[in-house]
Amino acid sequence: MVTGAVFADLGNDVIGVDIDQNRVDTLNSGGCPIHEPRLPELLKHNLREGRLTFTTSIPEAVLKSEIIFVCVGTPPVEDGGTNLSQVEAAATGIARALNSYKIIVNKSTVPVGTGDFVREVIEKNGVASTDFDVVCNPEFLREGQAVRDTLQPDRIVIGSASEKAAKIVQLLYQALNAPCIITDTQSAELIKYASNAFLATKISFINAVANLCEKTQADIREVAKGVGADSRIGPAFLGAGLGYGGSCFPKDIDALLQASRKLGAEISILEAVRAENDNRVPRFVQRIIDRLGATSRLPLEGKTIGVLGLSFKPDTDDMREAKSIEICHALREAGAELRVYDPIATENARRIIGDEGIEYCQSPYVAAKGASGIVIVTEWRDFIQLNLNRLKTEMVEPIIFDGRNIYSPEQVTDAGFEYFSIGKTPAKP
Ligand SMILES: NC(=O)c1ccc[n+]([C@@H]2O[C@H](COP(=O)([O-])OP(=O)(O)OC[C@H]3O[C@@H](n4cnc5c(N)ncnc54)[C@H](O)[C@@H]3O)[C@@H](O)[C@H]2O)c1
């Protein structure tokens, strides 16, 4: 949707195809099926201008197009590998409709070698190798700022065995004036996985250092500031917290680990990255239990806890691999009643987390009613601006467990709260 809307905005004719009729109907009627800043306006504008349409018909789109982007899901399978069935189905559909030379661009995140797989699928369906080229053009956008990232990318990566095809795809991006890396297909495929794996490594590394800070008088924010000031390291992705979630990092790290193992060149450091990440929520919940719990089978029985933030990150309603799911389940298992709030993701969250022992609230202050602790799970801007005095008057025990370090300890303790943050010993008023 985002890529299509931006290409249309740059003046191209774009036809979006999805097998989901509801999604196509919503889009054709001017709606936007996900929460993503700036996307609804961009979709509506280009729909009105007639440059953007949506259909469920692959043949209709293929016949009219010169360049075909495959952006389907590539979910994980049990052993950490990648399920390529959506890619295979899309490639088959394209092959059956192909009427002249086309460029097929793989934008989905796929294991190294998938370009060759797509080529094989298309040829198996009777298309001559001279009638198409395959290009790998991985996507680096971040949910919550997807339109901005698409308009101002750090780089555009284009991998292909065909110089001609790579040049045509590069032309499509020309108006963005972004650095362009033209390379072979397999390097392009690996650039995407390696980038995500490196970012995840940074996150797990700083989280592991945060664990050490909690055992000392050091403060992870100060440590990260000092470390990030080194130009060889940089400050991004050094915010300690509850670990990475979402639809990309967990599956991409697993997929790279599994693929490297299969090929006999295991990137074993990723085992440690994953283990640290898997341990973030259990460790955080244990701190809550240690502070609030009784020594019984259900240590939080009789306690009410407010949970702020449900989506996997701010500015999205995406709940895939959101830390809130694991946290809510763990707190419920410990016997707590939950009052939860999210500015956007409530309905999606309810479908995944359920209703049992959980009250979905209309505001952070309502979520705080009768609570013995507030847990910050997602760093929505709204939470940084909370009126802490008002929040405190709603609560039974004024304690904040901040899983994203959105407050400074002084700010919270001055307002009369006990404050547990990541990578620092607890602070008292
Ligand atoms: N979401 C992100 O932030 C992000 C960022 C970078 C890369 N990616 C990658 O992009 C790909 C898509 O991710 P997503 O989050 O948009 O997934 P998604 O599951 O939200 O969307 C995929 C869409 O493809 C449709 N689809 C499935 N099979 C189809 C077919 N044969 N023909 C037409 N449509 C079909 C589905 O109905 C769905 O609407 C994945 O490989 C992902 O790793 C995602």
Describe this structure in words.
There is one protein chain. The N and C termini lie far apart (48 Å). This protein has two domains: 2-184, 3-Layer(aba) Sandwich (Rossmann fold); 279-421, NAD(P)-binding Rossmann-like Domain (Rossmann fold, 3-Layer(aba) Sandwich). By secondary structure, it is an alpha/beta fold. The strands form three sheets. It has a six-stranded parallel sheet with strand order 10-9-8-11-12-13. α6 (114-124) links the parallel β4 and β5. The protein has helices at 2-9, 21-28, 39-48, 58-64, 85-97, 114-124, 146-151, 163-173, 185-214, 220-228, 249-262, 269-278, 280-292, 323-333, 346-353, 364-367, 381-384, 388-394, 409-414; strands at 14-17, 52-55, 67-70, 102-106, 132-136, 156-160, 180-183, 304-308, 337-341, 358-360, 373-376, 399-402, 418-421. The model has no long low-confidence stretch (mean pLDDT 97). The chain is elongated. The chain has 19 helices and 13 strands. The site of nicotinamide-adenine-dinucleotide has 20 residues, from α5.
Characterize the main sheet: 6 strands, parallel
Mean pLDDT: 97
Low-confidence segments = none
Beta-strand content: 5-15%
> Could you tell me which ligands this complex binds, including any ions or cofactors?
nicotinamide-adenine-dinucleotide
How many distinct beta strands?
13
What form results from the Cα inertia axes? elongated
Judging by the overall fold, what is the CATH architecture of the largest domain? 3-Layer(aba) Sandwich
Spatial strand order of the main sheet: 10-9-8-11-12-13
Radius of gyration: 24 Å
Number of helices: 19
CATH class of the largest domain: Alpha Beta
Helix content: 40-55%
Structural class of the secondary elements?
Answer: alpha/beta
Query: Looking at this structure, what is the CATH superfamily of the largest domain?
Result: NAD(P)-binding Rossmann-like Domain
**Any idea how many domains?**
2
CATH topology-level fold name of the largest domain: Rossmann fold
* N/C terminus separation: 48 Å
